Amino acid sequence: MPDRAAFGWDETLYAGSAAYYAVGRMSYPPTVADVLRTELGLDGNGRLLDVGCGPGSLTLLLAPLFSTVVGIDADRDMLRQADRAARQAGIGNVHWQRSRAEELPAGLGTFDVVTFAQSFHWFDRPRVARAVRPMLGADGVWVHVSATTHRGVEGADPLPYPRPPHDGIDALVARYLGPVRRAGRGVLPGGTPGGEEEVMRAAGYHGPRRLEVGGGAVRERTEDEVVASVFSLSYAAPHLFADRRPEFERDLRLLLRTASPGGRFAERTREVGLVLWRPWPLAESATGA
Fold first, then answer.
1. What CATH number labels 10-286?
2. Contact between 82 and 56 (Cβ < 8 Å)
């Protein structure tokens, strides 16, 4: 399976998904900020860079822990959603910049924390990891946030409402778009790339320290939110359905109403993984330490 680096950035990857992303993805639990505050000694000072920030879901959660925050993303619509959310929340210490991760350091300076939330796998990972390393201060930390926010944990335990029929949704997407996972103009037959630890160590980082946060909370969701969660996915972005999108949405809503005639659903949230890496001092890395 090719790495994203093999075919470069595709501006259609999340085309049309930004507004759906903000509605359909379950928010990160506040404990993510609490754990990072304690773990990293964050006190409202310092600088944060969120790479591949999307609509600012993580950026805005962490913004109160820093004096200056920069969120970058290559998708203009995602940044518009992020800016709108920041204004609505009254958060004024965030600067949004349209930029690819591969363009770093992009004159942005140094940071105390650099985060990648469900985004690193889309980039030229060796190149980005090397570019970020000198952007981290002496005690700087890279935080990889691993999460699944479009769907909860499967299970048979009783909930206030039925769980969304995720297997049926996946089958419906495959019926319209084919069995091979789509990604913008391309396909990902083997899914997104792994081997993150090897990439990070080769780029001069040590660790990782792994933390698990949250999980198990019951979230109630509406039919519209579940529909939005589907269109928020790279492999089910609205543009992929072309002129069949209304037909797909009609069939999707029929599937959901069959599962829950009242249009209400419930899920248990998944844990969020925080993977912390620190760069070796440049002199040590150069000597192979």
1. 3.40.50.150
2. yes
Burial of 206 (0-12, 13-18, 19+ CB in 10 A): middle
Q: Give me the sign of the Cα torsion angle 93, 145, 282, 195.
A: negative
Helix (H) or strand (E) holding 258: helix 245-259
Helix (H, G, I), strand (E, B) or coil at 289: coil
Looking at residue 76, its amino acid is: R
Task: Give pLDDT tens digits for 185-200.
Answer: 777 777 777 889 999 9
Closest CA to 214 of 148, 117, 116, 143: 148
Please name the amino acid found at residue 101. Answer: A
Q: How far is CA 43 from CA 14, 66, 217, 227, 233, in A?
A: 34, 7, 27, 38, 34
**Nearest residue to 137 (alpha-carbon basis) of 115, 105, 108, 112:** 112
Q: What is the pLDDT at residue 3?
A: 40
- pLDDT value at 8 more than 70: no
Name every residue whose Cβ is closer than 8 Å to that of residue 211 and which is 6 or more positions away in sequence.
Answer: 35, 39, 273, 274, 275, 276
Angle formed at CA 146 by CA 140 and CA 149, multiple of 5 degrees: 130
Domain boundaries along the sequence of the chain: 10-286
Q: Token pair for residue 125?
A: 């990972």
> How far apart are the C-alpha atoms of 98 and 86, rounded to whole Å?
16
CA within 13 Å, CB half, 185: 6
Q: What is the pTM of this model?
A: 0.91
Instruction: Give the CA distances from residue 52 to residues 121, 171, 184, in Å, rounded to whole numbers and listed in that order.
Output: 10, 29, 16
Beta bridge partners of 220: 266
Percent of the chain with pLDDT over 90: 82
CA pair distance 118, 82, nearest whole angstrom = 16
